[in-house]
Write a structure and sequence with these properties.
The chain is built from twelve helices and 28 strands. The strands form seven sheets. An eight-stranded mixed sheet has the order 5-4-8-2-1-11-14-13. A five-stranded mixed sheet has the order 16-17-18-20-19, with helices on one face. β19 and β20 form a beta hairpin. It is α+β, with helices and mostly antiparallel strands. The longest helix is centred in the middle third of the chain and has 21 residues. Helices cover 26% and strands 30% of the residues. It has a domain of 64 residues: Immunoglobulin-like.
Length: 578
């Protein structure tokens, strides 16, 4: 993330928004105090017994946002449902806020908020299946993002004309930065009805469908409704927006609304990007399956930060920049997360590659779909140069989202590019039919998705591996262990013994790696099976030229890239030292 080995232009062509460096957005020092509490600073802590026994079928959330004081005033009216005996409702909420009221079924309740862990006495024990109404009111100045979207929080900005322009981006820190939630990926809310109250003249673009708006005493309330939102994908987007709209006729027979809340003066660019979004829809619906939120909208909001995959209201801050690939890579990447994050959600931060790796693979895959093989392989080759391979993509020990920012581990980078490269290699190994059926099953829970026949899915790496094994009919432990559960890439060594070419794989763990290897020589292409991790082939003569893996099917260690990355780091250090 903050460590960048590639030149800026190369990185922009290869890597998604959420790992590119951004110009620091330094808020005034007084807005950064106090620092985030430990529990608030990261997302995905292990659930407590009470949180595990809690379902959240409904939330009525109201947030009044005051740009003049940079404060918010909120109420959260929850329906809490027990799945096991439940005495307490336990949420997460940044302790910098003043909690002004907590009630259970309309009566004042006893509560504590210890370092961001909000515990509420329900007054009785709910049996499995029983519900309670829990209402929380709070106010204060929310944490200000230093470098959104990398460091989460509020972004208080202004348009060039001086109008308030406000956004939230909380993926790394979680929903509890500005509203009480269970800050864990599996604790989505069944139905979120939100009311965002802003000064008259501003628009609040939100998740889901617009229910209505009303203005009173200089304030406008914008009412939104959405189903099963990913918790970090609940977002505020506030500004003097104008609205661009169009529709997309889906191959599945439904019509999908496309809407873009953009700043004044950007109407032509916004309309062009919406037309481009139709090509993304066409791609995703053909290659993956139906747009998961077609009954709500495809939505974008122009933001003062780079971007984020906010469900049905993707944050867009790429400034309509052209790219040599001829598409807006940021808009396409964030849109990919409607499938890989919002429809399919990882069960814990350890499995975040399911969001970012599969989402990142959608960029070269889109280029293959639109432009052909050369564009696909060019994107993959460029992407390959950014892999660090310092820590496993799927760590063995439980982690929180804070691991994303660990520069030494480099995990927050490799979940993108390495996850994507692994997906490419898996596809080459098991074939398109097994690969894409695996993708559909992990995303939709079934191989034949149609609008209305699927629900949001939660999955981990073991689920993905199990489905890939079922679809391919292969044992793939060796594959997923080597690429996701070990840090170093497999190393392929080649030794000539006269006309005999001897090949061997080496893994960090020392375990076998039976990945077949293609060899091109004498005008033909041969596949070496590599049973047990070794294999050989006769080249016909001891001077025959050969090429290993000529179609770049297998992700493996590259001495050239390793040497180049080391040189780049040395150059960077010299520039800093000089």
């Amino acid at each position: 993330m903050r460590h960048v080995l590639l030149p800026a232009l190369l990185a922009a062509a290869a890597l998604p928004a959420t790992i590119l460096p951004a110009a620091a957005q330094d808020a005034p020092a007084e807005l950064q105090a106090p620092p985030l509490a430990e529990r608030t600073s990261a997302s995905g802590f292990a659930l407590t017994a009470a949180q595990a026994a809690t379902e959240l079928p409904h939330l009525d959330l109201t947030l009044k946002v005051d740009p003049a004081t940079r404060t918010i005033d909120g109420t959260a009216d929850y329906t809490v449902k027990a799945t096991a005996p439940l005495q307490r409702a336990e949420f997460d909420l940044d302790p910098r806020f003043a909690i002004t009221s907590v009630t259970v079924n309309g009566r004042p309740a006893r509560w504590t908020n210890d370092g961001g862990f909000l515990s509420i006495d329900l007054g009785r024990t709910l049996r499995a299946g029983q519900t309670a109404k829990v209402a929380i009111a709070w106010n204060g100045a929310p944490h200000v993002a230093r470098r959104a979207p990398w460091d989460g929080g509020f972004v208080w900005s202004e348009t060039p004309e001086g109008a308030p322009w406000i956004a939230t981006a909380v993926q790394m820190n979680g929903c509890d930065l500005f509203w009480p939630c269970i800050d864990h990926p599996i604790k989505e809310i069944g139905r979120l009805d939100s009311t965002i109250v802003v000064p008259e003249g501003l628009t609040a673009a939100g998740n889901g469908k617009l229910v209505g708006s009303s203005t009173e005493d200089g304030w406008t309330s914008w009412n939104w409704s959405t189903r099963s939102p990913n918790t970090y994908a609940v977002a505020l987007n506030i500004g003097p927006y104008e609205l661009a709209s169009t529709e997309y006729a889906s191959r599945f027979g439904n019509t999908i609304p496309l809407k873009f809340w953009h700043l004044p003066g950007h109407s032509e660019d916004a309309a062009e990007l919406l037309e481009e979004m139709k090509s993304y829809l066409d791609f995703f619906e053909e290659m993956i399956g139906p747009y998961p939120f077609a009954d709500e909208k495809v939505g974008l909001a122009e933001t003062p930060h780079l971007g984020m995959e906010h469900q049905t209201i993707n944050a867009y801050g790429n400034e309509f920049k052209p790219s040599p690939q001829g598409y807006d890579w940021l808009a396409q990447h964030e849109f990919s997360h409607e499938w890989f994050a919002n429809q399919l959600t990882n069960t814990a931060p350890n499995h975040m590659w399911l969001h970012e790796g599969l989402g990142t693979y959608m960029q070269p895959l889109f280029l293959q779909w639109r432009d052909g093989e050369a564009a696909y392989h060019a994107a993959l080759v460029t992407q390959r140069q950014g892999l660090l391979n310092r820590s496993p993509v799927v760590p063995a020990e439980p982690i929180t989202s804070a691991h994303y920012l660990d520069e030494e581990a480099g995990w927050g980078r490799d979940i993108y590019g390495k996850g994507s490269q692994m997906a490419h290699t898996l596809r080459q190994l098991i074939g398109d039919e097994a690969f894409f059926t695996t993708i559909r099953r992990i995303v939709y829970g079934r191989p034949d998705p149609r609008p209305g026949n699927f629900v949001p899915q939660f999955a981990d790496t073991d689920d993905f591996q199990r489905i890939a094994e079922e679809e391919s009919g292969r044992d793939l432990d060796w594959f997923f262990d080597a690429y996701l559960r070990e840090a170093a890439l497999p190393v392929l060594t080649a030794t000539r013994n006269g006309s005999l070419l001897e090949l061997a794989w080496e893994r960090e763990s020392g375990e076998p790696f039976p990945m077949p290897v293609e060899v091109r020589f004498d005008g033909r292409l041969e596949t070496v099976p590599m049973t047990g991790g070794t294999g050989s082939i006769s080249l016909g003569s001891d001077t025959m030229h050969y090429v290993l893996d000529p179609m770049n099917k297998v992700l493996r260690f590259s001495p050239a890239i390793d040497e180049w990355q080391t040189w780049m780091m040395e150059q960077r250090g010299m520039r800093r030292g000089g």
